[in-house]
């Protein structure tokens, strides 16, 4: 007889939830080379990074492709836009059973296709408010290799239920952001504050068809500055910097290991030398995470930074 378990539902809910947060480049930045900032700054601040947190970062691989499409005329003051974001999160982890000296290997892949409508209402030359509503279609799949005797004993029970299984989720995400923008002779700077809430429904093979209901929220307060130092034709090169505080709750909090953290980024941006509708800018830089389970630094590739 089919039977679902709350602990498995919670695990899947948390997996979907933290993927939503970590796929949002306005909230979390994962790079292609991780390091401990304490080694760079000659400090010993555990909130800035530890050996374990850097190793934890290395377990995760994230690819995110965001694209934004304006739906109204360029001359219109208020903006209707469509955000489309494709993302994939992979993890490589190990599980060791009590009394065993061999680890079982667990690989996880979570794919997310996100579509959101946003309306930006301009209040004056500096202030704007931007409500929006989005939906995620997500697919979770994992693969367990049983190397230990204990793991092989539990394999007939766990396969299809928790391991070597898959699940889907449809998650709805209303959100709102308030922006303050200021143009300067050297470039521009911006302050923003946004709030996101999401709730969804799961289905699929895992946990006998009961992956649960992913739910969570996050608040983001950030300050960004862009210094334009070179312009060649229609291409602008800039120094980009941002710092943000992120507060999270519900299913998101467990995997991030905190209810709040800080992140700072610094790097170089370049706008394309010719018009490409879905590319605003690209670049390279450094990002630093402070206070979460992913605290540490990374080299990053910037894509369509706002």
From TrEMBL:
Using the record's annotation, list all stretches that form the Solitary outer membrane autotransporter-like beta-barrel domain: 2-305
Stored Pfam families? Omp_AT
User: What is the protein name stated in its UniProt record?
Assistant: Solitary outer membrane autotransporter-like beta-barrel domain-containing protein
């Amino acid at each position: 007889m089919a039977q679902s378990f709350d602990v498995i539902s919670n695990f899947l809910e948390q997996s979907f939830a933290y993927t939503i947060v970590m796929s949002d480049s306005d909230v979390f930045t994962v790079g292609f080379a991780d390091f401990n900032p304490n080694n760079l700054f000659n400090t010993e601040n555990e909130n800035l990074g530890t050996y374990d947190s850097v190793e934890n970062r290395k377990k995760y691989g994230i690819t995110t492709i965001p694209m934004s499409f304006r739906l109204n005329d360029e001359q219109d003051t208020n903006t209707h836009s469509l955000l489309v974001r494709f993302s994939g999160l992979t993890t490589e982890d190990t599980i060791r059973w009590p009394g065993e000296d061999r680890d079982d290997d667990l690989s996880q892949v979570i794919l997310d296709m996100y579509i959101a409508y946003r309306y930006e209402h301009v209040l004056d030359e500096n202030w704007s408010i931007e409500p929006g509503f989005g939906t995620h279609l997500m697919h979770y799949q994992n693969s367990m290799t049983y190397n230990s005797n204990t793991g092989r004993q539990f394999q007939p029970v766990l396969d299809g239920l928790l391991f070597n299984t898959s699940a889907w989720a449809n998650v709805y995400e209303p959100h709102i952001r308030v922006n303050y923008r200021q143009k300067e002779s050297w470039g521009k700077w911006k302050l923003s504050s946004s709030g996101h809430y999401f709730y969804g429904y799961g289905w699929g093979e895992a946990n006998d068809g009961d992956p649960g209901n992913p739910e969570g929220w996050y608040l983001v307060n950030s300050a960004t500055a862009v210094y334009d130092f070179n312009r060649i034709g229609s291409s602008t090169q800039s120094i980009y910097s941002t710092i943000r505080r992120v507060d999270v709750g519900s299913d998101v909090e467990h995997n991030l290991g905190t209810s709040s953290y800080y992140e700072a980024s610094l790097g170089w941006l370049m706008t394309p030398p010719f018009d490409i509708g879905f590319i605003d800018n690209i670049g390279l830089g450094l990002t630093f995470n402070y206070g979460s389970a992913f605290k540490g630094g990374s080299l990053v590739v910037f894509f369509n930074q706002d």
